[in-house]
Write a structure and sequence with these properties.
heterodimer, A: alpha/beta, 5-stranded mixed beta sheet, 5 strands, 41% helix, elongated, B: Nucleotidyltransferase, domain 5, 5 helices, 6 strands, 18% strand, disordered N terminus
């Protein structure tokens, strides 16, 4: 009986295509990675079911940390205008050097009286010092002045007001921030949150489901 | 290559001349693939996939004129007061004396029950975070409004009476 001989194949696999794929993916991820800028302000925002992405343009961001201190950051593109407007509105004695520093600074976390000094600090130095935050009390509400400067600097165009609070921040500080906005007749805010899943079976879940079904019917 | 061949054929090899071993050009690529995938894994994990989301909050204009204030039917209102230590105090209608206590996990049931028993146009939820509530509490409760699809709600301060009642309750319950 002539039995057909089974040819024994080699167990070595050509790795070249696999290697190609791996490096193609690698290139993609390297290019697509956007590293988080080192955050000097450590804030853990609460989560919400909202799935809207926080606006990244024309924003004014008020951060409230866990010690109820208020910091302000804004879109790079409008820093220069806002600074000029603020100096004009509050008659601050700030130099051109301060302005340059301000444009490079990530955020502001001190009262006007310490602003010039604060802007000279390097990021590492800022991290090492405890900042007093921007005053938001009813007696001395400097945040209000900042908002006013931002609104007037960008008169006519839409600004996005982001409020990013820490889980542990107290409500009165949040309210003080809201009041500072209200004083400038701004009533729309975006609260920065982490996203979380809509709980199954809840009203919103059913509503979303209905909307999806509706889209399918069409 | 061709030259080599010519050389080979042209010169006769003696017995002591070893034939040059032809080395394989194949390289084992497995370690390279390993490295590639290791790096891929690293970059996948470090890539910031989730951009921060944001929830919209629209606050009403403060008005001194009582005529412009939103009217709320007593039968349709539910007041949620956010207190210290993640506790919610709630009452129906206009009577803070009937205040009850709940937590953030159970508040959904209360909201849904109220929603079920009240005509949609009368339903109004009043959120009153007191001085000891955290920002997280406020966001959580606003989120709860979204989850339960409540369209009419407002965030206001508790009255001094309500605040003192909350404080009494907290003192009695020993909330730190």
């Amino acid at each position: 009986m002539g039995r057909a001989k089974i040819k024994r194949g080699s167990t070595t696999v050509d790795m070249t295509p696999m290697c190609d794929v791996a490096f193609l993916l690698l290139t993609f991820f390297i290019l697509a990675t956007k590293f988080k800028p080192p955050e000097i302000l450590e804030v853990t925002p609460p989560s919400s079911v909202s799935n809207k992405v926080a606006p990244q343009k024309d924003f004014l961001n008020v951060t409230i940390d866990k010690d109820n201190k208020v910091y302000l950051s804004m879109d790079e593109a409008m820093k220069s205008e806002v600074f000029d407007e603020l100096v004009k509105e509050r008659n601050l004695n700030l130099t051109a050097q301060d302005k340059q520093n301000f444009e490079q600074a990530g955020f502001v976390g001190v009262p006007f009286s310490q602003l010039s000094q604060f802007l000279k600090l390097k990021p590492e130095e800022i991290k090492a010092t405890t900042l007093p935050g921007i005053p938001v009390d009813s007696t001395n509400n400097e945040l209000q002045a900042w908002i006013s400067a931002a609104v007037n600097a960008r008169l006519g165009s839409k600004l996005n007001f982001l409020i990013k609070g820490d889980d542990g921040a107290k409500y009165p500080t949040f309210k003080a921030v809201i009041d500072a906005f209200k004083a400038n007749e701004q009533y729309k805010f975006n609260l920065v949150t982490n996203s979380k899943q809509v709980p199954e079976g809840s009203e919103l879940y059913k509503k979303n489901l209905r909307e999806q079904m509706g889209e399918k019917d069409k | 290559m061709a030259e080599m061949e010519v050389k080979d054929s042209g010169k006769k090899k003696g017995p002591g001349v070893k034939k040059g071993k032809k080395l394989s050009t194949r390289v084992d690529l497995t370690p390279m693939v390993d490295l590639g995938f290791l790096l891929i894994t690293f970059f996948i994990f470090t890539t910031t996939v989730s951009q921060p989301t944001s929830m919209n909050l629209n606050m009403p204009k403060d008005t001194k004129d009582p005529d412009q204030n939103t009217k709320v039917k007593e039968s349709g209102s539910l007041t949620l007061m956010l207190g210290k230590g993640n506790v919610i105090y709630y009452y129906y209608g206009n009577d803070p004396a009937t205040m009850q206590t709940t937590g953030y996990k159970d508040v959904r049931k209360i909201i849904l029950e109220k929603k079920r028993t009240t005509p949609a146009e009368d339903l109004f939820i009043i959120i009153k975070p007191d001085k000891d509530a955290t920002y997280k509490n406020a966001v959580d409760i606003l989120d709860e409004m979204d989850i339960n699809d409540i369209s009419r709600y407002a965030m206001v301060d508790p009255t001094p009476d309500e605040y003192s009642k909350i404080q009494q309750t907290e003192a009695a319950a020993g909330v730190q």
